[in-house]
Design brief:
Layout: E1 2-7, H1 12-22, E2 27-33, E3 43-44, H2 50-56, E4 64-67, H3 74-79, H4 81-102, E5 106-110, H5 121-141, E6 145-150, E7 152-154, H6 163-173, E8 176-179, E9 186-187, E10 189-191, H7 192-200, E11 210-216, E12 220-221, H8 222-232, E13 237-240, E14 260-266, H9 270-286
Parallel strand pairs: 1-2, 1-4, 2-3, 4-5, 5-6, 6-11, 7-10, 8-13, 11-14
Antiparallel strand pairs: 9-12
Helix pairs in contact: 1-7, 4-5, 6-9
Length: about 290
């Protein structure tokens, strides 16, 4: 059996990744989160509680750790920088030290595309710091890693703060749908199912001491997506609020790393991508909740 810890197992990606590995033969999963709200049977552990964390895994054999847990809401990080920095950085330190203690094969860390640029405020700063710490642990302790930077993930299970989920909910509830931004924003969207399938590959040996971009191959402009949805929902009116968010990137920043950078792309042309996003909005529209 391959034994895996998944932190943040109640989150958008963590929940789906936990379900993925549980459905595969040969894997034993230890899902961890500070809360338990799904059928993942997550062990409730605050990763900043080092004593409790080490005690729980004291006699367990672990091969890999997917460290997905973090405060990831950018607006929250702007409002609460101290809480964001302390939580994201010190929880990582505890997980890294647990990794050494358990002599795992590799830690797989969920970072962000924001680390490539100057947007993202204290969320980006926390992730940049975490990336540096992970690389230093590799240099000092030979702890192997893979750092994942996701594109714009959408799909089933997304939180209300997800931009595509917000669009879908507005389509369901309102006649006038307001999209944040100017329409010039460009994103590399990827469906959660595709993102999970690619994420699960990262335990392979070839993805060791590397940065991995997981995203869609097509860049979709916000105004292009809104025009497509407007044609599909003729009884709705779609508008932009015209405000450029200072903390969010307009164009995807380019990578600056000292380790090898690998791109894992889901290849979909723009029309297929727009249709896929439309079908997702339809599932929200038809949801009775």
């Amino acid at each position: 059996m391959i034994n895996i810890i998944i932190t943040g197992s109640e989150g958008f990606i963590g929940k789906q990744l936990t379900n993925h590995f549980k459905s595969q033969k040969g894997y034993n999963v230890y899902p961890l989160d500070i809360i338990s709200k799904t059928n993942n049977s997550s062990k409730i552990i605050d990763l900043n509680d080092k004593k409790k964390l080490f005690k729980y895994f004291r006699d367990k054999k672990i091969d890999y750790i997917f460290h997905l847990a973090s405060i990831s809401d950018i607006d929250f990080s702007v409002k609460y920088p101290e809480k964001t920095l302390i939580n994201n950085i010190f929880s990582l330190l505890n997980v890294l030290n647990l990794s050494l203690y358990l002599n795992i094969k590799k830690i797989i860390f969920s970072s962000t595309i924001y680390t490539k640029g100057n947007k993202g405020s204290f969320y980006r700063i926390s992730k940049n710091t975490c990336e540096d710490i992970i690389m230093e642990y590799q240099r000092l302790h030979k702890l192997d890693f893979a750092i994942i930077r996701y594109g714009s993930v959408y799909g089933n299970g997304a939180p209300h703060t997800n931009s595509i989920k917000d669009l879908a909910l507005q389509i369901k509830k309102k006649r006038i749908v307001v999209r944040k931004g100017t329409g010039e924003e460009i994103r590399s969207y990827i469906n959660i199912n595709d993102a999970i399938n690619l994420t699960a590959r990262i335990i392979k040996k070839k993805y060791t001491n590397v940065f991995v971009d997981i995203k869609g191959s097509s860049l979709l402009k916000s105004s292009n997506l809104i025009k497509y949805l407007q044609d599909k929902y003729e009884n709705k009116k779609f508008i932009f609020d015209g405000k450029e968010n200072f903390h969010h990137y307009r164009l995807s920043p380019k990578s600056k790393v000292i380790y090898k950078n690998i791109k894992l792309l889901i290849k979909k042309d723009l029309n297929s991508l727009k249709e896929e996003i439309y079908q997702y909005t339809q599932t929200i529209l038809n949801d009775k909740k």
